[in-house]
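Sync notes, pocket subgroup
Present: LS, DG
LS reminded everyone that the earlier model was apo-only. Rerun requested with zinc ion included. Inputs:
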Amino acid sequence: VRGITVRRDKLAACGMAEARRLLRDHGMAVSGLSRAFASSASDPAVRRAALDECRRAVDEAAALGALFLTMLGEAPRDGSKDLEGARRRVRDALADLLPHARAAGVPLAIEPVHPMNADACCINTLAQANDIVDELGEGTGVLVDVYHVWWDPAVEAEIRRAAGRILGFHLSDWLVPTRDVAFDRGMMGDGVIDIPRLRRLVDETGYDGFHEVEIFSAADWWRRDPDEVVRACVARYATAC
Ligand code: ZN
């Protein structure tokens, strides 16, 4: 295990200097910094504040030497049901952030999020993410997370389309039944995702970055001994991916 994603809340809790020391002492590369939201707001003041926050996230990613900053598209807020408008404003927010990200040398990795989480994130398919990358160009890419894309009939075509622009690849499994569509992810091999197929498709694009295990699991894996979890990740990566 040679790399890790850093969460911004954990980074804030321990501080940049201590985070850098921990990463260096343990020989860990930083795959991504997770995460920032591209704003769906209409109010210019809210959008400015969100853009400032995103710029801080870019600066943190640069300071950590992260390979990219994970970007999510914020769903409509405050009772709005204007999902299509939110998607346009998210795209505009990414475009507004891009000059700062390019100057800092931090690519923006747009991560589509499973549509069962569309109440939180409005970029829900790899096609949407690819469309934005087509439009915005250099300094943007996609993050392919099997948990978010496995159900998509277009996933094969869209992974192929993403060749050369895949910045990250996340592994976990979709449990059946699931107790929660966000926080009950399974260990690879325990659910219904054809992970080897998706991994092969990603590998075939020429992607040579990290294969990263990401298991949000409030009731199970998060409660276990971290050493046991890492051992299980390594073992299942070898047998189920
Ligand atoms: Zn992910």
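DG: The pocket of zinc ion is lined by residues 111, 145, 170, 214 (CB under 6 Å).
LS: The radius of gyration is 17 Å.
Action: DG to write up.
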